[in-house]
Amino acid sequence: MSYTAATIQLLSPEGSLVDSDAGAEYRQYIDELTDDQLREFHRQMVVIRAFDMEATNLQRQGQMALWVPSLGQEAAQVGSAFATRPQDHIFPAYREHVIARIRGVDPVDIIRMMRGVTHGGWNPAEHNNLHIYTLVIGSQTLHATGYAMGVKFDGASGTGDLDKDIATVVYFGDGATSQGDVSEALIFAASYQTSQLFFLQNNHWAISVPVTRQSPVPLYLRPSGFGIPGVQIDGNDVLASYAVSRKNLDETRVGGGPRFIEALTYRMGAHTSSDDPTKYRTNAEVQFWQERDPIARFETYLRSLGADDAFFAELAEEAADVAADTRKRTLEVVPPPNEFIFQNVYSEPHPRIDEQREWLAQYEASFGSDA
Ligand SMILES: Cc1ncc(C[n+]2csc(CCOP(=O)(O)OP(=O)(O)O)c2C)c(N)n1
Ligand SMILES: [Mg+2]
User: Fold this and answer.
1) Could you tell me the pLDDT band of residue 1, with boundaries at 50, 70 and 90?
2) Is 101 one of the catalytic residues?
């Protein structure tokens, strides 16, 4: 499944602006961007790719139980993340590493979580409303809709103030659309007319199940059955992701009702470090998408605007520094004390917890003092 006439694309895979009728209503959002903002889009994409590759290596070297790569999906994530406003709440799935970074999460905190040394990751209230990762497929769409309903009941959306009204964004995958949770979230969003953006990253695979097996129609058409407008974008085009998200977010925040964006992208790497994609997909398919790489086309575009070799060299250095720093700090992570497991289970002391704490202490002691 690839781009069609309905797919909004503002930047072609060759790196030049596309002047199509479908994209016309979004062009103004691009025209407003400064050179510095465009370079920041690129910077975030390049840095997170370096981080992601280093995290993949660290997992291979036994430093994490699992890694979930974001390779190839940088544009869908960066564009939509920059389209949010500070007051917005974001509910990610589990591979939105650059969105977390843009909202102020230290990416090493994602590694800590995958290493199993934190309970959940981070406190959303201290990280610009970036909620925690959710590995239970699709469940975050319900969390987001519930949150957006609360926002609406509080009168904190739909007042017409772009700088104050809160929009809620939820990220999910093509496979998630087959979960009942997502349909339920769409129904409640439509019924309560929440200020909410459903952002689907269609990376064409749900582990080894292709999207074609999960839906005979393009997924952006599905929300119309719930009364929610849907639009399909080239998710490897950071400009389309930014502009279409910006417009839909600003319309939903002031009371336009929920919106749905399907970003066509591709998971270039494995589903996770536990997966071998060569078992179920062809090299030709991977190559097709390599030719539509989100970063390569944006570099071409920035060069056409005047970015020089020095800019790209400095950025490559910064990305390498982030990767090196990620490695260094990952190797320094100290496991928390056992007591950490028992904290926050109940608000008050509980005999079962005391029993389990005692059992663990005895078990640990059974290894002797050298353990
Ligand atoms: C409720 C539930 N069922 C099954 C799984 C196992 N599982 C993990 S990832 C995944 C595929 C998800 O695919 P998609 O929604 O397209 O997201 P992607 O991983 O491609 O980003 C599945 C089935 C799970 N984590 N949760
Ligand atoms: Mg998928």
Assistant:
1) low
2) no
pLDDT tens by residue, 217-232: 999 999 999 999 999 9
Per DSSP, the three-state class of 43 is helix
CA 61 from centroid of its chain's CA atoms: 25
Enclosing domain of residue 250? 24-331
The yes-or-no verdict on residue 73 having pLDDT over 70 is yes
Q: Is 271 in the pocket of ligand 1 (CB under 6 A)?
A: yes
3-state secondary structure at position 174: coil
In three-state secondary structure terms, 232 is: strand
Q: What is the mean pLDDT of residues 86-110?
A: 98
Which of residues 299, 316, 331 is at a domain's end?
331
94 lines ligand 1 (CB under 6 A): no
> Under DSSP, is residue 345 helix (H, G, I), strand (E, B) or coil?
coil
pTM above 0.90, yes or no: yes
Residue 280 bears catalytic tag: yes
For the Cβ of 173 lying below 6 angstroms from any atom of ligand 1, the answer is: yes
Instruction: Say how many domains are in the chain.
Output: 2
Q: What pLDDT is recorded for position 4?
A: 86
For residues 197 and 321, membership in a common domain is answered with: yes
Q: Ligand 2: distance of its center to the CA of 41 in Å?
A: 23
Ligand 1 atom 4: residue of nearest CA: 137
Q: Which two tokens stand for residue 93?
A: 């799935």
Q: Is 94 assigned a catalytic role?
A: no
The answer to the question of residue 13 being in a domain is no
Q: Judge if 30 and 96 occupy the same domain.
A: yes
- Whether the per-residue pLDDT at 190 is higher than 60: the answer is yes
> How many Å from the N-terminal Cα to the C-terminal Cα in the chain?
54
Q: Which of 95, 127, 253, 271 is catalytic?
A: 271
